[in-house]
Fold:
Amino acid sequence: MSTQKWVLVLVTHDGPFHADDVLAVAWMIHTHPFARIDIVRTRDEAKLQAALNDGMSILIDVGGKCKPSMGWLDHHMPEGRPTWEDGAPMAAAGLCLHYTCKEYGISVDELPDEIVALFKHVDAVDNALSAPTNFQFSRLVGECNPSRVNITASDFNKSFMRVVKITQLMLSGMFRGEFMDIDDAQRFFEIQAEPLLKRHKQDLQESETRLKSFMGLWKGSSTLMLDNFEPSAKLLLVGMPGLKLYAFPAVGNNNEYMVQVAPKTTFKFPTAWWGLYEKDLKVAGAPEGVQYCHHAGFLCKVANKEVAQQLLNKFK
Structure:
């Protein structure tokens, strides 16, 4: 008898993870119980292009293309983004849900209401839309990211796999009726992820101590360059009036930096850049070394600190 297994290759982004890519990968594992699942986490443009061309990989939340018939399940495009039946924008979670339903020849409406609601809430949060006030799953997943100084790509990958496994168990419990509702499922997740959440809380407190003294040097500035990824930045930078942009090292990567719009500001990067990668960004007028601009215009990934400083100077 043959021992060869059906291999399912899932490609998603590296670095910090979010509820939509975690739920999407957990769902793919849950719905393909007889496959061997290989998970590749990368943003490397050459590797993503190879995955797009191989006809075998499923790209989740990365790749810049949405064509479910080809297994391309990304929602980060400047236009033509996928939506639910009611017009609400999808994220990777909703795309994977619909992909598997079509694969198995069933309708989304045939799934348990709690499952559909979970996916819709995650998509809403990922697209910066409102979800029920008692919905905490997206926040809990985000707080499972490692957030200390000098994090490696391996740190993120280990935490990602742990959170995917917890989410897979949660989904299984929801299907078996072990939880009364989404709130009950969220409590299960929180209990299982308690060590990761406890670590994040401690990292956040240490980050606040570092940043409070550092930020005084930048008072009144419209830009801020951080030497480390700081998990408390989004919370503390709200208290810096006039701040437009801040830059920080891309966690888990060698020299790359992120340049992000500060909280509570209306500034966005040029719309012609939104959702584009390096080659197209250069054509659109972005400086050399800008590698990706988020489809909502609030974040750019760049090659190094020097390019990050260029962007800070350009838009200050």
User: Anything to note?
Assistant: The mean pLDDT is 90. The chain is about 40% helix and 15% strand. The beta strands are 7-12, 36-41, 58-60, 66-67, 72-73, 223-225, 245-249, 257-261, 290-293, 299-302.
